[in-house]
Amino acid sequence: MTLADTRTVIETRMSVPGKSVLEHNEILGLDSALRYINKTLVNKDPLTVYDILAIHKRVLGHVDPIEAGSFRQNQVFVGDHIPPLASDVVYLMEEFVEWLQSKSFLQLHPVKQAAITHYKLVYIHSFVDGNGRTARLLMNLLLMKNGYPPVIIRKQDRSIYFNALQLANEGDIRPFIRYIAHCTKCTLNVYLHGLEYGAKCLMALELKNQERGDMIPL
Prior knowledge:
This protein is mainly α. The chain contains nine helices and no strands. It has helices at residues 3-12, 21-41, 49-60, 89-99, 103-106, 110-124, 131-145, 158-169, 174-212. Helix 3 (49-60) crosses helix 7 (131-145) and helix 8 runs antiparallel to helix 9. The protein is globular, with a radius of gyration of 20 Å. The two termini are 40 Å apart. It holds the Pfam family Fic.
């Protein structure tokens, strides 16, 4: 869907012609998860397994209410990657949230924290569906906690994203970290450009009002 289509679905809850029910429900799920993150988790520490399950419950809530918010019970396969056994998922997720509070994690640069967190969650592949969306949301939550805007991973860059994940699965996570750092830089540039444009508009308006003898209240 386009940005305009997404806005229509979120703001009006009306369907967009030519788009599937699944596409609509995925957007509604992401919107619900983002609202939950902004309202509940941005200022919450430490993050728990329950918090990750709560994110996933909202991500998948409109798509698959039965699996939403639950760890997988069966073995799954993701291309050439064979995730851990389902019986190990609970233990691995508990270990994962402990790592989020560890000294080794907290000493990392925030962007590196976010990238490795993203990869670890995708690697464990805790859910039947919605793993990538949940991992990207958790990555952006960590970035927002450190004062960064949510990172935009462009649809046209999907092949780069998946190739970097594949390299990480093969033992070299550096390309994935570099890719997330690149996305972070691009997103920051978008935000800064918007701020610069807004400042120029405000300055132009102020000059115009000064010429007319008006004042802008502070």
